[in-house]
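User: Modeling request: complex.
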Amino acid sequence: MTTTAPAGQTASAPPPATTRAGVRAAHRLFAVRELGIALALLLLIAVTTAVNPRFLSGQSRKDLMLGATILVVLAVGQAIVIITRNVDLSVGSVLGLSAFATGKLFLAMPDAPIVLAVLAGIGLGTLCGIVNGALIAVARVPALVVTLGTLYMFRGLDYSWAAGQQINAADLPSGFKAMGTATVLGVPVLALFAIVVLLVAGYYLRSYRSGRELYAIGSDPAAARLSGIPVGRRVFGALVVSGALAGLAGVLYAARFGTLDASAGSGMELNVVAAAVVGGVAIFGGSGSVYGAALGALLLSTIGSALPVLRIDPFWQQAVVGALILTAIGLDRVLAARVAHRLRGRKARGA
Amino acid sequence: MAPDKTGRPARSLAKLGTWDVLVIVVLVGVIVASSVLVEGFASPRFWGFLLLDVTPIALIALPMTLVVITGEIDLSVASTLGLASAVMGQLWFLGLPLPVILPLVVLLGALLGAVNGLFVAGFGLPSLAVTIGTLALYRGLAYVVLGDRAIADFPFSWTANSIEALPGTTVPWVALVVAALAVVFGVVLHATPIGRSLYAMGNNTQAATFAGISVNRTKFWLYVLTGAIAALAGIFWTLRYASARADNGSGLELSVVAAVLLGGVSIFGGRGTLVGVLAGVLLLMTLRNALQLADVPADTLTVVTGALLIISVVGPNVAQMLRDRLRRRRATAQPVAGA
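Assistant: Request completed. Predicted assembly structure:
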């Protein structure tokens, strides 16, 4: 909402040659940033395990990963959107819609293959993403407003479709439920989805021209448009990806919890934005990575499991998350200031 | 979500003034149509209840309008409401008298607002991220204070008083308080240098700074004000439902923001009127309550809220785009006709 952009933002855009050294400094600093979150996460796990060694036993390790899975998938989509200086507040509602649709699908066709459910969820999410993207990119309306509107609309559709109905685990085919609990080499199958999503998105953002263009758009939309980047199309694409991932997250939610009503994922949008922000994705676009966002998601969900083990009243959880967000954006500002300082220093030395 | 004024002109929301008129016309239309079509809508009793429902959203929408006009946002208001309610309940539980508790709670709200203000105006951090952080923090603290308990043994004289109607009418007296505050906010926003400086800050922060406006100090106090009024809404909420709970008002921040944007305030700042916002709040709540009365299921109301919000921002933009296209076509057609 402010007009002052953190100086670090511009650093992630394709740089002019003169500032390349400064950009390397910026990259190092932001890499340090992700390292910091990883260290905080490791510290949290270490302390909790020291208090109660069973925190990392087989079953609870699985629970930790499962707990983070859905948030990671959503946070990856959200990071892609925020990098373009937009936001998607409708993800919780899309997740709810897709989770309920998955239940309905299995009620109608108990023998439906799991692949079909996954594709249906992604398809439904994509559709929601297209609505968001079209309104934002074509009608040129701010994403915050549009996705606040669709947050209500998708949730309302979900409720009127469900009409008070609840789908129970017993209604879901055992193969699908098995996917929610199965593991491969100790890693839950659901978590594998999150890992694949993360790696694909990370590779795309880092190595594809259109992926780099997302950063350029977030750094300076006007400059990006002038340099010939199809801003509207890229932003549209980012929203569609976020929708598709929220749809996938809905299917994963259905597989994990089995019991579905229209309120699935209510209020989740704020956790997702929080995960991205904690993970170092600057809310004004142009910097951050999906890995950071995933780490943020992992940290937030691990806090939830660690607090009871540390004998801290679980009522503290939300307060801790809030404090973490404030710390993270404060840290972001400090780092950005340091990058700006370095850039100035180099320029002064004529480098 | 960002002040992208060069690439995406904030020409949305059509011309100032015309939008207010449109919202008011739609509001009147909804009222007339509901009076005819919905049984029980035209009764004074229903309007009394409607005004009680409107009160917390209208209260918080007043300072929120000012905040959004300066180009910022405050998503923590509903959590402030919840924390105020929880602290109020806890202090009552500990045996403090209500006349002592209430000023303390308002002060607490101002302090919570000051924390937002410090981060946004003092450290220059983005308000969207800051207030998402305090949204979680304040709601979490509310749970820390009260857990999942509900304090409900407030004296009847207080709870009944909070929804008391003015003698001889069904108009609750709190509606008058909201109206009085609205007049104060309206005068300050539209008829004083302070109000003009808020628009200036929203339109161009740098220009406002050069014009001698202390941008950061103004923003800081705006957040303090927003926090205090959110706490006031928390007191009303607690007394009206005779229940102090940590989850009071959950999700209300989205309704307030929706009402403010529906009322024609630009999310980029610099545009909007208080009359428009009040009409927006009333439109949203009247439509909801009328549909509810007509036995339209609650889920449809949620869709209506979202659709209203989207139409209100997409409509003017698309209309403008069509107008532009038409004008361009005419402009290109004319020379040909002339030649």
